[in-house]
TrEMBL record, chains A, B, C, D:
It comes from the Bacteria. It comes from Streptomyces himalayensis subsp. aureolus. The keyword NADP applies. The active site is at residue 146. GO terms for biological process: L-arginine biosynthetic process. Belongs to the NAGSA dehydrogenase family. Type 1 subfamily. It is an enzyme of class 1 (oxidoreductase). This is N-acetyl-gamma-glutamyl-phosphate reductase. HAMAP family: ArgC_type1. Pathway: Amino-acid biosynthesis; L-arginine biosynthesis; N(2)-acetyl-L-ornithine from L-glutamate: step 3/4. The gene is argC. The keyword NADP applies.
Amino acid sequence: MTVRAAVAGASGYAGGELLRLLLVHAEVEIGALTGNSNAGQRLGALQPHLLPLADRVLEPTTPEVLAGHDVVFLALPHGQSAAVAEQLGPDVLVVDMGADFRLKNAADWEKFYGSAHAGTWPYGLPELPGARAALEGSKRIAVPGCYPTAASLALFPAYAVGLAEPDAVIVAASGTSGAGKAPKPHLLGSEVMGSMSPYGVGGVHRHTPEMIQNLSAAAGETVTVSFTPTLAPMPRGILATCTAKAKPGTTAESVRAAYEKAYADEPFVHLLPEGQWPATASVYGSNAVQVQVAYDEAAGRVIAISAIDNLAKGTAGGAVQSMNIALGFAEETGLSTIGVAP
Amino acid sequence: MTVRAAVAGASGYAGGELLRLLLVHAEVEIGALTGNSNAGQRLGALQPHLLPLADRVLEPTTPEVLAGHDVVFLALPHGQSAAVAEQLGPDVLVVDMGADFRLKNAADWEKFYGSAHAGTWPYGLPELPGARAALEGSKRIAVPGCYPTAASLALFPAYAVGLAEPDAVIVAASGTSGAGKAPKPHLLGSEVMGSMSPYGVGGVHRHTPEMIQNLSAAAGETVTVSFTPTLAPMPRGILATCTAKAKPGTTAESVRAAYEKAYADEPFVHLLPEGQWPATASVYGSNAVQVQVAYDEAAGRVIAISAIDNLAKGTAGGAVQSMNIALGFAEETGLSTIGVAP
Amino acid sequence: MTVRAAVAGASGYAGGELLRLLLVHAEVEIGALTGNSNAGQRLGALQPHLLPLADRVLEPTTPEVLAGHDVVFLALPHGQSAAVAEQLGPDVLVVDMGADFRLKNAADWEKFYGSAHAGTWPYGLPELPGARAALEGSKRIAVPGCYPTAASLALFPAYAVGLAEPDAVIVAASGTSGAGKAPKPHLLGSEVMGSMSPYGVGGVHRHTPEMIQNLSAAAGETVTVSFTPTLAPMPRGILATCTAKAKPGTTAESVRAAYEKAYADEPFVHLLPEGQWPATASVYGSNAVQVQVAYDEAAGRVIAISAIDNLAKGTAGGAVQSMNIALGFAEETGLSTIGVAP
Amino acid sequence: MTVRAAVAGASGYAGGELLRLLLVHAEVEIGALTGNSNAGQRLGALQPHLLPLADRVLEPTTPEVLAGHDVVFLALPHGQSAAVAEQLGPDVLVVDMGADFRLKNAADWEKFYGSAHAGTWPYGLPELPGARAALEGSKRIAVPGCYPTAASLALFPAYAVGLAEPDAVIVAASGTSGAGKAPKPHLLGSEVMGSMSPYGVGGVHRHTPEMIQNLSAAAGETVTVSFTPTLAPMPRGILATCTAKAKPGTTAESVRAAYEKAYADEPFVHLLPEGQWPATASVYGSNAVQVQVAYDEAAGRVIAISAIDNLAKGTAGGAVQSMNIALGFAEETGLSTIGVAP
């Protein structure tokens, strides 16, 4: 193993998923694991599925504990990453799984997060145009949000070749782990099983400006995004249903060709054969992305749908994939395209 | 009890839900129950939740068995209702829970169902403009599809007052009972639990022309509809997320006012207080519809969301409500706005 | 309506289910609804499925608020009922849905609940021998625990006729609503979906002495009980699998006969036809109990299995049924044997 | 890679899980994949989660197709393995994931399976006393049933040291994948979600004699088993709750010591720290077994509970583990103790 990695926020869902992946990563040794309210507890009590780490004990998230690692992953609440990152020095690779450094526009940050903008780091969605180049050798990585990962991969190929109008509608269903491990009444099993419900409707969800940023970059013009997230009765997975009016001259063939070209060489994004549609179960636990696209001639619309595992490709898998690029490892190291199903 | 009702197709999910409702309907006596492949079986083996009917035995679906009833409900596969209805005579109230008589445009029927159009009956969605008048005294009722019920109730108020552009995007999640009781591999519990997946994407779902019909009537102009149904890991419920570009001059207030006006006097449609959003769990087993609407100024869009129970208001409840109107009973007879939750 | 009922603890799952039932009870008018931390909130925000009560506001649980009712239901945390009941006067029917007055043996109470024993009230499981007589005219009712309801109804017929050895093994699976609405990490949807797990293993669950009390009374000798509760990934329902060694001379016929006799005239307990087994889905939302029993000759054991809805027959339905008896209403008033399925 | 493996029955759940494991097994190259009704289909359509094999096409299950492999895994319906195995020659390692060669007693086979007994092969549950020695170098392996795996690992340590009476009660909850991929009405998602139900009650389930065989061997006397399987609303996992009367002199300490000794050196069986109980979610997708045990002094019973993934350790993982032993690979090759959670 060639690098030693610390995980700040190891007791939550993102931290747990990251550890699941790092345990099988050939180039990574797992170093310090930290928590705040959970410091001092055995990991076996908090993450009982990570048997090889059961006897590890969480330490507090301090500069001393995080010092001496080659990589530090931050799985912290939004707004806390900047202060920790500052103390880590410029030679440590810091991978922020929070939102702090994703947005380029400070005004967007302030509007959606209500605090001062900390800055912008290279964006960890390697499949976007130019993203890999920015990640190579970088010592700072902003891991994308789970919804923007799903939605951007569904729609950017259409915008990249200019076949869709800049007015996207995105409706996404997420498993409950996306809402985190802090107990809240509406996240109780009794409430979520058997129920679909929306939240953050009307452009107020914090992932909206991130989608706009990604799709506008691909389109070369400002794309408006109507984004509606919904909570689905499953632990993991995002299904993003995305549509935009087709520009004149679009055909089913031109749509298909755009997606085939975009994903011909991508190791993790799988454009399904025509007629087969994504299912979140198929990417459960894997870093794969299933994508399918259709052209609805009667409605004049492109419909692109993606399925990801929100914790894997949507968070921890995307983090590892980006780390691999930044450190010069093979991009697929420690990552799998094999789901756990049924 | 003033009328005697037969149910053709009593072994399926729609038939079972209808019986659940008729068992507590003060004006209805349950008469013949028929099936085809299940004729001769005890209902207790097929619908074990309907304890009071456990010892009833299914009869074959024949004119002789269905004769002598005041009302005949048809819960048959698409395309079979016309032949049965013809044999029942003009004085019997025939309530078709299938698709056969929903569409006005014969070409739409032929395109989406691939057979000859049987005709058009009064449409059993009383909340639509003019629908109650057409149902009163009618001896024939076409019960709407479950998705069109959810989507039409979410969006028609916006079209009725002319505040939305005629280009609707509808993404709906349905519980698995909407796919029926015939065993198919993709409907196995092992496949659906933990998974969200789309189907019928790109304008090919049969409920699409029905939505277009309803929304166009409300708008007074042809509305195109991009409809994407998704299968959700729950037995019941539809959550319909619907959006259309707002016409110039639209404000959050004008949107709210349109919905308040549309639903001020409706017994089953509940426009939620601002800030509260629908959840399918809240209408589980009830005939209620939860609706909420938002205006996303940045995207220039109206977003309207509804939750229904696909088997209740979406099928059997809608059928009973329409029957009540046709027969002059109080519209709420035998129907409830109380869900079973959690 | 002939009585006015208050519900203390209207914001929780037991309180919500009780209101669902009282809303359709022909003899009950719903009076004050109280909560503690939720006092002042609209019920529509807390119990969005109870549409007819959406605009009711919760009041604090005080003697003043609860005064002036014929019936007061207490859905309070264990240990709080005695103090409230004392203030209500001897002419008010107090129905305690908590544990405080279930146990006859003060030492059991102290061992399992760790506080002083408040006393013993008539026990609200009418199907047990002698229970109805004790409930008639009573002004105090102790509603049983959900697990003891399921297990006692599964096993007491075997003990009542002396065909089972006094050493019962009970393994029960419960939906998550049994654990209440207070948010705890292990009850998050992310944790419970896809998982079965036991808790309170080894005789430490508080419902154990209540089962011993019921089964011993039926047997006329002390029955030991090994009880293991498990948490199942569903919102509602209890499936209790119960077994005891058969006494010499037992046959499949004698077992069947004992259960047929016990439940021949019970309105809510349905002994299934031979070969059909209970399912919690079949009693979802209903007050029915499905029971089936088998004699395993090779193992020399009687296996009795019951399914109930933990919130209905297991809590609020049992409360209403007992209230009906106490007040002289028809026992089935406001209660249904029709489940909501699928 | 040192061996080439064929999988007969690659379209089902057991076959799919096996391929998931073999894809990451360092010593195995995946050879022919066969099906019967599905021959000719792309694996990507049948097992969409196995992305690296998406373009493989199923072949028919014939001797010609299976020839030329070092290992042949049989995931066939019960009763079909013997005929296929005969054609494979004595030098090929045949791993039967069906039931055909599990039972030693021909009369048991005939009683429970209704056909002639094919024989007995070394039993693929390495944790049982003597099992590893029988597997080493063997060319035939009978993979245990999923329930016997869970139950035997929960209870055999108690029997091996003679602290439990030979009268075991086993109640187990299984995810639906245990029932296979053939579509049947009672396995529909609509039926299983939200429902717990028993089946095969009263000693008639085919896994009963296998449990008796394992526990009797450990006890050195005939153990009777009362086994009740239940279907739980989850895709994967078995939770087995097992109990037996303790022999005189048993203490909590002696119980704990027996389990600590039995599992001190087992790579896949994890005896949890005292106070922590198994959960199927913790072993989702892993080959790990979580075990916990308690002594209920009041009931005089040992209660042992295990959680496994029915498709992994319960079927395909157990098959790979046994293959590793038979072929002299490190036992843990290609297997993980890390679950996918939440």
